[in-house]
Amino acid sequence: MSSISARHDHNAMGGEMVMADGVPALFYMQRIFWVFVGTSIAVATLANVINKILCRQRISVRQSPSAAKPTSLFFKSHATLSAIIREYSNYSIPVSINRKHFYLSPVGLWTILVGYLVLIVVCVFYGFNPKDFAQFEDIGYRAGFIAVCQLPLIILLSGKRNIIGFFTGAGYERLSWLHRWTARALLFTVLIHMGYFLTVWGKYDYIMTKMRTDALTQRGVAAGGVLLWLVLSSCAPIRGLSYEVFVVQHIISWIGFFVALTFHIPAENKTWLWLPIAFWGFDRLARAAYMMYGNLSVFHKKSSGFLACKASFEPLDETHTRITISNPPITWRAGQHLFLTDHFLAPLCSHPFTITTLPEDGKLEFVVRAKKGATKKFYKYAETVSPLLPLAESAVPKPRPVLIDGPYSRIRPLRQFESLVFIVGSTGATFTVPLMRDIVQQWVGKTNTSWLPFSMPAGAVTRHVRFVWVVKKTASVRWFSSQLNDVIREVEALKNEGHDIAIEISVYVTCDNAMTSPRPSITGEESRFIGQATSGREDQLDEKNTAYTLSQEPTSDCDCGRLVTDQDAITTICNCIPKRERDSNSSTSSLEKSDRLVHPRINLLTGRPDVSNIIRTTAELALGEMAVVVCGPPGLVQCTRNAAVAISDDRAVHKGTGAQGIYVHAETFGYA
């Protein structure tokens, strides 16, 4: 028995310890693991650099009608390879079980995860015979070494000021799902580590003795238990109960895990602990520096008081609040978000909100859906100080001091694409309206260019923009009516000056939850529609969207549920609106009011958009690569993803037909 106890003594074992002939040493396999991880990051970085070069090249020749069309052999090959990767990675496999229909997460995500697990398994078992009992403890040691060397990657993927994201061009919110899954892969590796030792001890009925007498084993079990809690508590159903509580306990549990691990692993492996601590500390210091600069008035001459940001709250309807910060002390780009904190209204709460304005507007503005927690408190406060009824000028409430953290998020510059299609569900307009306005600002020439030496030049390759917004009620049009009207007027003025540009905006009024609601279930009729669109998938990308359900409930026979095209006009209020609303004067005139709020050139339709037809029509007219940007609930996002894949495949973009590629950027409701 003494020999068994002695073998599980990490302090007596070196990473380069001699193992069986032909079996690599422990440190060597750690280096192999990071060779593959580092190579993957390098490939993603190279792809990001090529995309930036391509963007700069296109904008430099933006006056050419074929600016977004590859001409050289290198970029033609790049376009073909991109089309193949997009069609493969964006597609989501439909599954049916007991009349329930599911879409799995996009294939590209699963491929990355499976590849990562294969790498771990190979690094753990390479050179060993997993069936040879004599090698079980050696496999256990190897698994422990491979487990601990994963820690720097997990921490690197968790940072807001993300180093990997900086090089690869991916925002932290897009890397957060990989952070969670690498943590689960770490748990998988730890289970291999524990399992092989327990198997050996179990053969000699030595498990409980080891647990009672060996401090090293006790610390290992403690670390494994905390890691198990970290993984389980990070699952969406538990995390969603209270995100603020989750963040606090997650940090405390992470500290406990590292403390237990410090006393468990050998001294020569401690480097794998100091590295992630250093990365975590750098992220916190960088965030603290940005927050101090963005929030303290001492750094901004035009600000007064202690905090530089003052926010006003205004209720838009029964569930949405508009938050406005005038004269913000920071700058940002369209499509970015920041974290907003008001410790007096919602103590210790910090929530991410998409910025709905551009820097040229001179204000930060957010449209926030009131759910629970901080967002509900913001809405109740807005109701109190600024009710829906008009206030006298003297009664306008004084803005409140708030804290901001950001901005965050990255998206490829959309002005490098010849045509753009925006598919938007409900509050997804907070993300897409600024992106569309930014293109128009590039056309008008109002966008400020950055002083940085590697910044992109001004101007846009884009010549055609198609914007489709799906809402549950026409009153929602008021959220962005002024911005949409300004877009139409500015584009018409440019066209009168001879500019070859076009923009189409359509608003669809529907009661289709798959198009407008964060809830994933949709009805049988909607299921048939999505099947049609996909024949031929961020926050954030979360495991809660790994499979979404299409329930087989019958639909009401109202107009808002039908599939329509832009040739259909909106003329009546849909039948599914409650009778009390249809009978009220304000509701019966809602369409007329909306008509007066929006420009006549903005189409108001009742029903569901034919996403596949919209994308296909734009693709057939595009003179170069086009982009599809979708933001909304999982049902709408997945429908759009698969439609783009089917159209790209039908047009044989990757087969040398001359058809141009389709880039898809997807944002889903929710937050990682």
UniProtKB/TrEMBL annotation:
Keywords: Cell membrane, Electron transport, Glycoprotein, Ion transport, Membrane, Oxidoreductase, Transmembrane, Transmembrane helix, Transport. PROSITE patterns: FAD_FR. One of its GO terms (cellular component) is plasma membrane. GO terms for molecular function: ferric-chelate reductase (NADPH) activity. Residues 303-414 form the FAD-binding FR-type domain. This is ferric-chelate reductase (NADPH). The chain crosses the membrane at residues 32-50, 107-127, 139-160, 181-201, 221-238, 245-265. It is a multi-pass membrane protein. It comes from Hymenoscyphus albidus. It is an enzyme of class 1 (oxidoreductase). Its main location: membrane. It is found in: Cell membrane. Belongs to the ferric reductase (FRE) family. Its EC number is 1.16.1.9. One of its GO terms (biological process) is copper ion import. CDD domains: NOX_Duox_like_FAD_NADP. InterPro entries: FAD-bd_8, FAD-bd_FR_type, Fe3_Rdtase_TM_dom, Fe_red_NAD-bd_6, Ferric/Cupric_Reductase, FNR_nucleotide-bd, Riboflavin_synthase-like_b-brl. It catalyses: 2 a Fe(II)-siderophore + NADP(+) + H(+) = 2 a Fe(III)-siderophore + NADPH.
